[in-house]
């Protein structure tokens, strides 16, 4: 049986998914009406391709968010887990950010095609995350051999660490 927190999370997730769905449908609707119907004289194959690409981004990201937010029920229909918290961050937050950026760029591009350049924010931010979280620590963290630690010194250090850990356990009891 789920607690009140899980039930509350299910309701919050349902509201967030409804908001995202309305945002996606509104952005696609505004773009289709404005760009493809009202400004049909300036319409080209790139505008149709842009609608297709943003719709693909919406589909992938919304599917990721909705699958994470899906609650788990037992065989009797009782709530076991309320799904992931959509406000926690991580990949789910990135999916939501992509939906928001896509919606803004899509609607703003009705005013000028230059707004499509804002999509460069996405790979730029991805490159920044790749550099700060993976590449920079991997490249600039010195290895044990570079620190001058010999195998004998490493063994002695590990032995001392184990001894200190045993002392901590004694004091805790």
Automatic annotation (TrEMBL):
Protein name as annotated: Transmembrane protein 208
- Give the residue ranges for region: Disordered: 150-173
Which residues belong to the signal peptide in this entry?
Answer: none
Q: Does the keyword Transmembrane apply?
A: yes
A single Gene Ontology CC term: endoplasmic reticulum membrane
- Does the record bear Transmembrane in its keywords? yes
Originating organism: [Myrmecia] bisecta
Write down a Pfam family by its short name.
Answer: TMEM208_SND2
Q: How does it sit in the membrane?
A: Multi-pass membrane protein
């Amino acid at each position: 049986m789920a607690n009140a927190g899980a039930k509350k999370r299910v309701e919050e997730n349902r509201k967030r998914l409804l908001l995202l769905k309305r945002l996606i449908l509104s952005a696609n609707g505004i773009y289709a009406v404005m760009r493809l119907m009202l400004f049909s004289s300036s319409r080209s194959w790139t505008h149709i391709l842009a609608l297709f690409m943003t719709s693909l981004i919406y589909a992938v990201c919304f599917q990721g968010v909705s699958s994470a937010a899906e609650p788990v029920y037992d065989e009797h229909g009782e709530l076991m887990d309320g799904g992931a918290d959509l406000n926690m961050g991580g990949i789910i937050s990135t999916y939501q950010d992509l939906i928001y950026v896509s919606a803004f760029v899509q609607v703003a591009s009705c005013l000028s095609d230059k707004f499509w350049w804002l999509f460069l924010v996405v790979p730029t931010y991805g490159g920044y995350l790749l550099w700060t979280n993976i590449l920079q620590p991997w490249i600039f963290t010195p290895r044990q051999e570079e620190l001058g630690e010999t195998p004998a010194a490493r063994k002695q250090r590990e032995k001392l660490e184990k001894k200190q850990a045993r002392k901590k356990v004694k004091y805790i009891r």
